[in-house]
Model the fold of this input.
Amino acid sequence: MRALVTGGAGFIGSHLIDRLVSRGDHIVVLDNLSSGQLSFLDHHQSTGQVKVIKGDLCNFEDVHAAMNEDIDCVFHLAANPDIRLGTRVTDTDLKQGTIATYNVVEAMRRCDVKKIAFASSSVVYGEGAPLPTPEDYGPCMPISLYGASKQAGEGLISSWVGTFGLQAWIFRFANIIGARGTHGVIFDFIHKLRKDPTRLEVLGNGLQEKSYMEVGDCADAILHVMSIANEPLNLYNLGSHDTASVRTIAEIVVDVTGCKDAQIEYTGGDRGWAGDIPKARLSINKMLESGFDVGMDSEEAIRHTAESLLAEIGLEDES
Amino acid sequence: MRALVTGGAGFIGSHLIDRLVSRGDHIVVLDNLSSGQLSFLDHHQSTGQVKVIKGDLCNFEDVHAAMNEDIDCVFHLAANPDIRLGTRVTDTDLKQGTIATYNVVEAMRRCDVKKIAFASSSVVYGEGAPLPTPEDYGPCMPISLYGASKQAGEGLISSWVGTFGLQAWIFRFANIIGARGTHGVIFDFIHKLRKDPTRLEVLGNGLQEKSYMEVGDCADAILHVMSIANEPLNLYNLGSHDTASVRTIAEIVVDVTGCKDAQIEYTGGDRGWAGDIPKARLSINKMLESGFDVGMDSEEAIRHTAESLLAEIGLEDES
Done:
């Protein structure tokens, strides 16, 4: 199979590509390398199976050119990775989320590419959903601009399924963490401790409680579900069985980094920022019923991630 | 109150403005006059309560200028009115729906305008929802590009509620019909009979079955719900109690126009076009519980609309 992976040089994309290369696929990566890194794909250079195109998903011509490479299936993972940014800059998610997704499905229509997997998010459910939240929860009223762009991406894809005969797998991710992470709470905590090993500032009161899934599990789940689900449109939550609090994450990161004297300080309030959802947990029954289970639950994934990122980033502050 | 009505020179907008003027409001209309008509607002000229700005919702500066007119509340009704267009032109709904709605909420943020009512649609529910469909149905997977843009608009608004403190009333409309209609099945049928009174071509098998609401009822329902619902985000289906088939509509239009010899011919298939939803009916329990009921049900609204449009359009073909 020949796959186009948008955001393929990024965190989740590069792990997915590890698996696609292993099974013998050929991959075209379209990435603007804003948070993705070519080094995440270096280990595939000798295989000749991975071609990287540096391009902008917001530019239709870039997407169309990549789609023209005899593609069988698109994995559309590219997006602004910083959910908080929407509180300050309001057009990033519109452009890099919604309009980029329009460019992807429209290029698919023009190039007659029929299959797409899409990285959506638990944040489309908004606040106040029952926990764990099943796929058929409604109404979905996202409270972050990132969530709005993921919902808009889902709708664009479902309308291309209904109008132009696309086949789609939409995955609503829990918090995906692991090696090569380029953002998120564990990444932030390590960087904070690197700057000041005596103090760790935590946004909110630390009681925010979410579900974490290891990125390797996430990539495996995507490929498993695509191998067994064959409706025109297939919608799956991907997550682990349990949750962890931000307080627990802070304590694990302090432990893993060995910054035993670090004071953990909370900024207070029930959420990290406007648009943050304090409690989130996905129902993963549909994923489990498909025959896939995760290898790690939240705390194990957090510890593994902290260890991996610590090895990548180090604690020596070069700033 | 000073209201901005986007699409105010259009079909639903002009009826809403009739009511806003009656209750003493002042109104700024922002409309590109592509399907809206200044003549729909002529009867308010003497009141001095309605100011019309010809402008493009896709142009942020136009929206920002209109929003700067000391607005208390926005009624965001402007959109591409032609659902079928998305099967041929794929960026109209993205621009005139999604991006226009982004421009509206972003201009609200910058001008500190806090209240918005939004015209969404039953088509956000997609196909296969239980009938009648309640507001909390999920997952919403629209099958038309128009539906995708309405869902994206809902998400943008809900994210501005969650992130920037907007208050919103989102209305998912059934098929709204009535005087001054500029599109839709009854409008199309009258125009077809005007061209050829002996023959009426109907897209699909005529068994498509949807709920129709008279536009005056729709405008009254909007203002009623806004007067009693006061959550940060309020979501209501607006529709009538029953449905009518396209076959019934064709027969009513033939009857009202007096084209008794017209042969009704069906193109076949269960839907009018790719992305059309053959059966749609909204649960209106929430609207009824708010204390509002419609004056007309589907067939009565269809007959009233056919009579009104016939009087406006006439049967003399000038083409």
